[in-house]
Description:
mainly alpha, DNA Cyclobutane Dipyrimidine Photolyase, subunit A, domain 3, Serine Threonine Protein Phosphatase 5, Tetratricopeptide repeat, 5 strands
Amino acid sequence: MLPDFPPSRAAALERLKDFAPKAGRAYAAGRNTDPGPGAPNAVSMLSPYVRRRMVTEREMVAATLEHHNAEAAEKFIQEVFWRTYWKGWLEMLPSIWEHYLKGRRHALDDVDANGGLRRDYERALAGSTGIEGFDDWAQELTSTGWLHNHARMWFASIWIFTLRLPWELGADFFYQHLLDADPASNTLSWRWVAGLQTRGKTYLARPDNIEKYTNGRFRPHGLAPFAEPLVEDVELLQPRPPRDGHAALPHEPYALLITGDDLSPEQWSGMAERPPAVVLNPGALPQEQQLNSGEVARRFADAAMDDASERQQVAAENVEPNANAVIESCRNAGVAILVMPFATVGPTIAFRTELIAPLASAGLSLVEVKRSWDDAAWPRATKGFFPFKQSIPKLMSRAGLLT
């Protein structure tokens, strides 16, 4: 039986309810084992939901603490904060996302121009390289939209160091098909495996490790014995402070533009007292249509957006993902304010950039609601995760999760 991800907040909360009792020592002991599609495993299977905030990081930690103390659930809580850390890191160094997109375009051009590279690339995508495990994971990804995190690390290492394929194309393959495809977690994790994120530190896939943590399912032959760090012609700048957002909703009537970065706006502070006049559902944003284009991932994302629209219990309208359509809908609704979730680096910030000038010309104000979780945590993501980890108890206390 393949993994099942019903695209609704109700399904996300039910999965969280089922997992939370197992988020302590059982998770810590079994989280690195990938038993294969459909087999019981220790991980939460919540990543597609938290990526789109159909369930929030705070809700996951709160549910966990109902069953475990913070020490017993330390490993799972840290995994929740890893996502927050990656998001904050990219928010402060957004040029890395643009550098990735540029590298992706150049790599695709190289594939078109080089027959040997094109052959190797297409074999990797199809899962026909002859490498045990790797081929299975490629096929699992495209058919289910999900891979165990350990399998993702093995796959990325083999892609980069054994097959010698451009890392940007591997990250692109993941982004196309993963239900939880996220610009920060996906891009920065591939960079980490390649030795670009933490300079000089790579991840090497080893046959014995794969055999151990797949319960003996795979022991591939011919893997690279070394993982020499990649180099790139980009210098990381000093992190900039994260952009500000709004903590409160406006008192005046407004239209709510939902995006795939935050599909539970009803959890925002003040939403119950000040609901939107109309909900605008633009579907997949232009850059996301291009990047997250796998059939399984696209169906999930579209249905999740529809679920979010329907839950708001006010008039919902599907609009084209462009400024003119959004402006027309606001005018039809008689509102002068457009509210949207805080636009994070990736397809959402690209769409926000396209909206800014036309909205101003039309006399409309844009309000981006930024969650307090992000506002507190992102400025601490300036170095590696381990310094960030020291802040987790303080961040949990600030979120009202520890006393």
